[in-house]
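Protein: Adaptor-related protein complex 5, zeta 1 subunit
Species: Plakobranchus ocellatus
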Amino acid sequence: MSNNTCFEILSFFGASAHQVSNLSKRRSYPLCFTAWSYVSGSVRLSRLHAVLSECLKSTRVMVCCQLVPVMLRIWFMTVLDSEDSVYLAQLIPVIIERSGILVAVPELLKDVHKIFADQIVALMKAYPSMVTIQKVDIREFIQTTANMAGRVEIYCNMVYAVGEFASPTYCVECTSETIGQFYESLEVVAYELLGQLSSQEHDSSIPKVLSTIVAALAKLASRCQDLIPRAILCLTKVVKQQNVIMVNPTTKNFIVQKAASLIALLKNPDTASTILNPDPEIYTARWHQNNTSMSTILRGIDRFVKE
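Structure follows.
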């Protein structure tokens, strides 16, 4: 990005801030407080949003809404290159908080939420220890179904990241106790969503979220055998509820078949552990060539079953 482009972007942000400041003076809102002080108080935040609502159609504001996602992507690329795990770990609670207090501009919300969702996985893939370091904030986020509202993609990616990286394979500090805590948080949500699906008036995103959760539950259970009976019980309920789940047949069949497949896997703990918890080197060519690779194991199982 050239210096001229940076100056142009800065001027747009400055002009928009000046416009908001003038509006706040007319409303007698003290916007001289820092932006952080507004984020920390729901009343002041609502006032700021009220002021912004008056100028959402302003050309300057619309341009800023287009620039913010671009700058946000560049910022995340820069901080990921820093390799400062302590600093990066602090981004998870910030993403959770900021994703819920954005100004209600549909295009801005869609773009920023997409960036946040992608970066959650990118951050935890680069530094899996974040799952353990920020487990309190993550658990608080995933165990509250209200957090799905307007943030389905972020919620699903957070659940996926927990299922994928809450493992001693990625982080030695991730104990059985930690895995059990994450499991309990997701299990409660799974039962709650099943109850909601029995009603005709439910959020259309619930099937997607439930599908992500059942996969995460199976992965977590495969790392802690004490959880396997509970996981099988939960997944069995998903299968048995197929007659009362009020979704289209295609979606219903997908969820039920996925749950049934996971049940079959979990009934064979050794197989489940191998398939649901592949070595991190799955992303390398060695994983597909070595005698201990997933593809080799599956071919061996296939031959054994046929014989």
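Remarks: Residues 280-307 form one domain.
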